[in-house]
User: Fold these one by one.
Assistant:
Number 1:
Amino acid sequence: SQRPYVIDEMISAKSIAARIEALARDIQEEFAGTNKLVVVGLLRGSFVFIADLVRELDLPVEVDFLEASSYGDGMESSREVRILKDLRGQIEGRDVLVVEDIVDTGHTLSHVSQFLLSRLPARLRTIALLDKPARREVDFKADWIGFEIPDEFVVGYGIDFAQRNRNLPFIGKVRFTDV
Ligand code: PRP
Ligand code: MN
Ligand code: MG
């Protein structure tokens, strides 16, 4: 972006870590006894969250990735979701956990869920670190949510603004300084 901005911390790295520990316990309970959990990260935004989440899971897991069409460098949802990179592995008859950084309009995760359900997994569950219910355009709710947040433009912990700031260890909100 050409516009100048600063980033204000919204959710600290410590709060994120504590929340992930609690989420991991819930997920372990849900999938207790499974020997075939596939954890699917949606590229690119989920890469930090999935890395931290799987390391808290005391379950046998496989990790796979899928990429859906992106907002690109813009701030608006395209609404029409396409699969740009498919899974490497099979999920039929397996337990699947789809990991997302944020649910905004809901188009991405609802489309990806339908797409994966058509392959007849044994169970499909979804988790998103952040949920912005105020922005929802389709009726979708992840099975687990880390934090519900207001309608702010957030970055960090995997989430970008024009491909920048994914490497921040916390969730911050963008504040434009030219207004
Ligand atoms: C962002 C975010 C979610 C999606 C949420 O991804 O990471 O995947 O948008 O928006 P929605 O609920 O309105 O569909 P983006 O398309 O920017 O790609 P990225 O993960 O590579 O940044
Ligand atoms: Mn994404
Ligand atoms: Mg993005």
Number 2:
Amino acid sequence: MTKGSRGRLAEGPRIRTMKKPGQMTKVTWYGHATFKIETPGGKTILVDPWFQNPANPTGKDDVKTTKADLILVTHGHSDHLGDAIEIGKRTKAKLVATKDLGAAIVAAGYPKDQFGTETTGNFGGTIKALAGEVSITFVPAVHSSAVDDRPAGNPGGFLITVKGSGTIYHTGDTDLFGDMALIGKLAKVDLMLACIGGHFTMDPTRAAEAIKLVKPKQTWPMHYGTNPALAGTPAELAAALKKIGARTNLVAKKVGESILLSTPL
Ligand code: NI
Ligand code: MN
């Protein structure tokens, strides 16, 4: 490309070719921190699969029927490990977790041969998965981690990049921390799945500051309403964002609903 061709005039009108639904990544929320990510290549990634959470009326069936190629777990608490072991046994999905956390999950019953070097890492590291369609970076969280009463490494979050679709940041359970600015600096986050419930994690006020640091195009609030202690609401998040002048498109979807990551070709 010559220097002159980079200008808008030389390039001519910009043509936006939108992808068809089957070529886009579909993200579905099942309540709490449980998300399903379906890739254009036809693979299914589950994050923190607690399908049987109180907000999901179809949890029992979802555990029996949901497909999975990869199961990502942010930390060992039962509201995140959730139904991972049962689904892992049924689907043969590989477990993606940091080393110590994964070892604790295997000790709790996850099939040992479904957690190996290729799907483990540690903070700052990136793994390629699903024949290169997906890359996953392990990022820290400020929280705790145990599987029942067993120590289970450190808590984390995930940056999940689906080739041609964009990057999703699942915060896990965390407080606001300043290094979130580096997460947003090093990755262009298209969708942030952000905990907002308070009590065990950041509340809407702190989550708004987190969003200001990460600068995601869209934000899907999660980890609220499943327990009376998790009292933060999306409306409070919207008000807190406005107050500090932070911009993001808030995803207003109910449990069981989906969005398509609509990155233009
Ligand atoms: Ni937790
Ligand atoms: Mn939690």
